[in-house]
Write a structure and sequence with these properties.
Blueprint: E1 2-5, E2 8-12, E3 15-16, H1 21-29, E4 35-37, H2 45-49, H3 52-59, E5 63-66, E6 83-86, H4 87-96, E7 102-106, H5 108-111, E8 135-138, E9 143-147, E10 155-158, E11 164-169, E12 207-213, E13 218-221, E14 226-230
Parallel strand pairs: 2-12, 3-4
Antiparallel strand pairs: 1-2, 4-13, 5-6, 7-8, 9-14, 10-13, 11-12, 11-14
Length: 231
């Protein structure tokens, strides 16, 4: 299905319970198209375990870096945390009220090795760099600005606990997304939930994809895709 959302031409990302390795590779990896698999993690321990109370029981005493939605600043340093707190305090905040604080690129599985027993490397026909996955957390309403990843990797994005809205664009749409020169981000004054097409008219021509991820679902994002996430 194709929908026009606030001026963008966005397609709903196709969803399947599962795909064979050949179907996944030939229909999505090779042509570089996104897809969602809804049942891939149902046999993982994480599917039942990964809720905030479980993370708190294992990692509540860990000091974690927090990021908010302030614009990137060279004074503060790229990817430098805006503040730190105990995981237990952060989880208390998540459970009590909306917050724009996020945990970003945190190697919790290294800090709490027992979590490594809760997931499985998916055998879906994609060659994986088997480093420990990074975990991300966000409060209700927290946003991840529109960007693409520097390593241009194929991404398997697994979502647990709650919902997440994703708007993504292939690299071909970069010319419409007001990319910041010599950077991996679009202009941070663009609200991708409610864009100002008078101020940023090129956005009307951007063609991408949209989805809402539910607990346990996996989004495949091909190489170099722009992505905006809202918890």
């Amino acid at each position: 299905m194709t929908v026009t959302t606030r001026g963008f031409l966005l397609k709903e990302i196709p969803r399947f319970e599962s795909l064979s390795k050949q179907e996944f590779y030939e229909n999505y990896v090779r042509p570089q198209k996104p897809v969602i698999l809804t049942k891939l993690t149902e046999d993982w321990p994480a599917y039942e375990k990964w809720h905030l109370n479980y993370i708190n029981s294992l990692a509540g005493a860990k000091t974690v870096p927090l990021y908010d939605d302030r614009p990137v600043s060279h004074e503060e340093g790229f990817n430098e945390a805006h503040t730190t707190t105990l995981m237990s305090e952060y989880i208390k905040l998540l459970e009590s009220q909306p917050t724009n604080y996020r945990i970003f690129l945190y190697n919790l599985m290294k800090e709490v090795p027992v979590l490594q027993n809760d997931f499985k490397w998916p055998n879906i026909g994609l060659r994986l760099v088997k480093q420990l996955p990074m975990l991300f957390f966000g409060g209700a309403g927290a946003k991840v600005f529109m960007h693409f990843d520097i390593d241009y990797a194929n991404i398997l994005h697994f979502h647990f606990h709650g919902k997440k809205k994703c708007i993504i664009f292939p690299p071909s749409e970069s010319k419409y997304l007001y990319k910041v020169p010599h950077a991996l981000i679009s202009r941070e004054d663009i609200d991708f939930d409610n864009p100002d097409f008078e101020k940023f008219p090129a956005l009307r021509h951007a063609e991408g994809y949209i989805c809402e991820l539910n607990h346990g679902e996996m989004l495949y994002m091909p190489e170099g895709y722009w992505h905006y996430m809202k918890y």
